[in-house]
Specification:
With 321 residues, the chain is an alpha/beta fold. It is built from 12 helices and 9 strands. Strands 1, 2, 3, 4, 5, 6, 7, 8 and 9 form a 9-stranded mixed beta sheet that branches. Helix 1 packs parallel to helix 2 and helix 8 packs parallel to helix 10. The longest helix is centred in the last third of the chain and has 21 residues.
């Protein structure tokens, strides 16, 4: 198995250095590395260039001319990764994700043991995500697949894993063949729910595992859940969730209904916990309007002016067909 890691960076140069050093120190070496710098202005691109020099031709730094958000950055990085037909898995993460030394080895070991128990149908894996204190990070707590069959649960448990239906981009392993078949994350999401929609899309009709033996540290400022007060970013939560529920083929109809109900409950909790509900109301109003009146633009169109290299942009457009 050949693994290409994709790291998206924006204005966190010290964390970026730590993440890149951790990738270089994996007990099972990463085969290739793609770093996408989302137009940082804090010197992150210089840090990446310095550390990637040690990788030689196994690494590529893509400097974008505008911030395309996590969704755009991952679309670019994943497109560059799967353009190499030798890549079997794409390992994605943000610049505040620091992999433990056996994060890659633990995931690949689980994959090999899982594949040996039945057909080769694994499309996505996710790491155990902890905070700086070593406790599980509530922002990235995986949830078991709803209505997973007993056989599915037992097969996952036999390799020390859990069957899942979606995963965050904080250390997710994406099967490259599945990416080539179903395309890329939707760049126009910009922030939030791009990983939910994309991983659920890859996992519809396929298998996904949460692998506790693959551990990474998510170095957020606080150990908070996704219900924490998002401020103006609530706009993206609302708009993008509506795009998922209205337009995506990631979920089955019954799943859509369950996730709509869960989302409504989460939004209520978010409002209750907020110290500035006026900002949330504005985000809800604008997100609700745009979520119903618009749809995501093609990623090739979104990224056309962002300084994406021509070969990568061509790959983005190819995977949209």
């Amino acid at each position: 198995m050949r693994v290409t890691a994709v790291l998206v960076a924006w204005n966190r140069r010290m964390l970026l250095r730590e993440a890149l050093e951790a990738l270089a120190a994996q007990s099972r070496p990463v085969d290739r590395l793609v770093v996408v710098d989302n137009a940082s202005d804090d010197g992150s691109d210089a840090v990446a260039a310095e550390l990637l020099a040690e990788w030689g031709d196994r690494a590529r730094l893509i400097r974008l001319s505008e911030n395309t958000g996590g969704a755009g950055g991952f679309a670019v990085g994943i497109a560059a990764a799967v353009a190499d037909l030798a890549t079997d898995w794409v390992w994605v993460m943000d610049d505040d994700t620091v992999p433990g030394p056996d994060a890659l080895a633990g995931a690949l070991d689980a994959f090999e043991r899982y594949r040996a128990t039945g057909q080769d149908d694994l499309a996505v894996m996710g790491s155990r995500v902890v905070w700086t204190d070593g406790a599980d990070h509530p922002m990235n707590t995986p949830k078991a697949k709803i209505r997973a069959s007993r056989a599915e649960r037992e097969r996952a448990a036999s390799v020390g894993a859990m069957e899942i239906r979606s995963i965050s981009f904080v250390s997710a392993f994406l099967r490259a063949a599945r990416v080539r078949e179903l395309g890329l994350p939707i760049a126009d999401y910009f922030l939030w729910n791009d990983d939910f929609e994309y991983s659920a899309r890859l996992l519809r009709g396929a298998r996904g595992l949460f692998v506790p033996d693959s551990v990474v540290t998510h170095k957020t400022a606080k150990r908070g859940s996704s219900d924490a007060d998002p401020g103006p970013r609530f706009f993206f939560e609302v708009r993008n969730k509506l795009w998922v529920f209205r337009l995506s083929k990631a979920l089955y109809g019954w799943e859509n209904a369950l996730y709509i109900a869960a989302t409504a409950r989460r939004w209520v909790r978010t409002f209750r916990a907020s110290r500035d509900r006026a900002v949330l109301r504005d985000g809800l109003r604008r997100g609700w309007r745009d979520g119903w009146r618009t749809r995501p633009r093609p990623s090739g169109e979104v990224l056309a002016t962002a300084g994406v290299p021509e070969d990568v942009l061509a790959q983005v457009r190819l995977l949209e067909r």
